[in-house]
Design a protein that fits this description.
single chain; 315 residues; alpha/beta; six-stranded mixed beta sheet; four-stranded antiparallel beta sheet; 9 helices; 10 strands; globular; PAPS_reduct_dom
């Protein structure tokens, strides 16, 4: 009987075996972090972005508390600009695994027409993501929020600790972080303060894909290459969907593309790719030398834009 490993290309199988013990060590550390946080905090929640990192987080949370259910809800901040396939996957998958899902939207900003075209990407992100996230956490009374940040994903995220302290306004000060010696996490909070917990801190993008493959974890189909309608905008392949506003000179064309990361549809570009299976994605990733988030507009508004958003309370 064949195993998933038998279907891997030779180059990927070699990497998979090299990293198997490494993946087991990462998994063990993440399970420990989940259990530690649940034991220490009164009301934790998991931030659920629907992306590949969130899918790994969900599987780790299931394992950490098996045979019980995941003992905290998932919070998805819905900007109203997520791809339709993401929302369909969110609703179907969370129902299948029996997770409690909370969807929070900044309805006032949405009703006021908040959009990247009206406000610019930075202000739009502030209204539809940061404000909505802070309001959702406050309304739920959550004192700890699990997030899927990885240190290799974006430079400001490399400054975070596993337990990342937030003040009473939900804001982060990178110069006022608590040390974590010998994996000892400081969970002491004053009233109104909270902690963001990052169980994937020591994972890389390649680790995530190898784990998705080894565990056969479902992910949003947009990660797999297929022919899609796109427009080429500023060198970025923008997928055409219900939110797309075509400029006068733009024409829709079909390209073989896939998403490397998922976000709001107006601000997240696709990449040209033929990788339509997990082994092909892993094989493709091994050769990549470009940033995972190079097609995310919110990371490039200005120098240090992601760190600015995180200081304001984003993620």
């Amino acid at each position: 009987m064949s195993t998933p490993v038998d279907t891997l290309p030779d180059s990927v199988r070699e990497v998979y075996h090299e990293r198997l013990n490494h993946l087991q060590a990462l998994e063990a550390e993440s399970l420990y972090i989940f259990r530690e946080a649940v034991a220490e905090f009164a009301k934790p929640v998991m931030l659920y972005s629907i992306g590949k990192d969130s899918s790994v987080m969900l599987r780790l949370a299931q394992k950490a508390f098996f045979p019980g259910k995941i003992p905290f809800p998932l919070l998805h901040v819905d900007t109203s600009y997520k791809f339709t396939e993401m929302i369909e996957f969110r609703d179907k998958y969370t129902k299948e695994i029996g997770a409690e899902l909370i969807v929070h939207r900044n309805e006032e900003a949405i009703a006021d027409g908040a959009s990247p075209w009206k406000l610019g990407t930075q202000n739009c992100c502030g209204a539809l993501k940061t404000r909505s996230l802070l309001d959702g956490l406050a309304e739920g009374g959550f004192d700890a929020a699990f997030g899927g940040a990885r240190r290799d994903e974006e430079k400001s995220r490399a400054k975070e600790r596993v337990y990342s302290f937030r003040d009473g306004a939900g804001q982060w000060d990178p110069k006022n972080q608590r040390p974590e010696l010998w994996s000892l996490y400081n969970s002491r909070l004053r009233k109104g303060e909270s902690i963001r917990v990052f169980p994937l801190s020591n994972w890389t993008e390649l680790d995530i894909w190898l784990y998705l493959y080894s565990e056969q974890i479902p992910i949003v189909p947009m990660y797999f290459a297929q022919e899609r309608d796109v427009v080429v905008r500023g060198g970025t392949l923008t997928i055409v969907d219900h939110t797309t506003r075509l400029l006068p000179h733009e024409t829709v064309e079909k390209r073989m593309v896939r998403m490397r990361s998922l976000g709001c549809s107006p601000c997240t570009g696709a990449i040209a790719s033929e990788a339509d299976t997990l082994p092909k994605i892993i094989e493709e990733l091994i050769t990549f030398r470009r940033s995972e988030r190079e097609n995310r507009a919110i990371d490039h508004d200005e120098e240090g834009s992601m760190e600015t958003k995180k200081r304001e309370g984003y993620f």
